[in-house]
Amino acid sequence: LAKTEIVALVKRLAKQHHSAELAQLASRIAAVSRLGSVAGQDPFAKVKALITDMIAKLEKDAGAEATEKAYCDEQMSKTEAKKTDLESDIEKMSSKIDQATARSAELKEEIQGLEAELAALTREQVEMDKLRSETHAEFKVAKAELEHGLEGVRKALSVLRDYYANEGAALLQDGQPAPPQKFAAASGAGTSIIGILEVVESDFAKNLAKEE
């Protein structure tokens, strides 16, 4: 190839590959060709040396790039593996968080239900305490009335029993005539009244026992 063709070829390669080194090589080949022609030296030997040096440099750079690329690929592979592991961990944690959130919602509903039940029980307890207080007050009144009534009935029975017992004893003393018919009727009426009062006394006693 002519010197100009070599320079043109190298420039075209430099343009195609966007290589500053090849562009610089084309300039050096052109300069060497001009200087060699002037000095009467063989320019092709110098050009060949330049090209050989450039090839060696490009091979060295390519080897370094290959090594760097291999390193980058290895690091990228490790990064991807780590990313996959992290994504798996994130997915597991997200699942646990979702479960915990769902359980938290369930617990909140249970707590609300328990609070509602507790409030209802509290209201019922207040109502029961109120009713118990009212019932106790009524019991005290009823008990007092029953005791008072029972005491009155017992006093009446005592008086009536003493009265009829004394009257009968006085009439049956020695030397007294037989009791008149009116007294017998009165005595029978008294016995009937006493019997009624005894029934009333029994009822009062039973009711008082129930109240207690």
Give a short summary of the structure:
By secondary structure, this protein is mainly alpha-helical.
Q: If you had to describe this structure to a student in words, what would you say it looks like?
A:
With 212 residues, the protein is mostly helical. 92% of the residues lie in helices and 0% in strands. It is built from four helices and no strands. It has helices spanning 3-17, 20-39, 43-171, 181-211. Helix 2 (20-39) runs antiparallel to helix 3. The longest helix is centred in the middle third of the chain and has 129 residues, at 43-171. The chain is rod-shaped and about 180 Å long.
Low-confidence stretches: 171-175, 178-186
Task: Figure out the total of helices.
Answer: 4
User: What's the total number of strands?
Assistant: 0
User: Roughly what is the average pLDDT, rounded to an integer?
Assistant: 77
Gyration radius, in Å? 65 Å
The helix content is over 70%
Distance between the amino and carboxyl termini: 137 Å
Biggest sheet, open or closed, and with what strands and sense? none
Shape verdict: rod-shaped
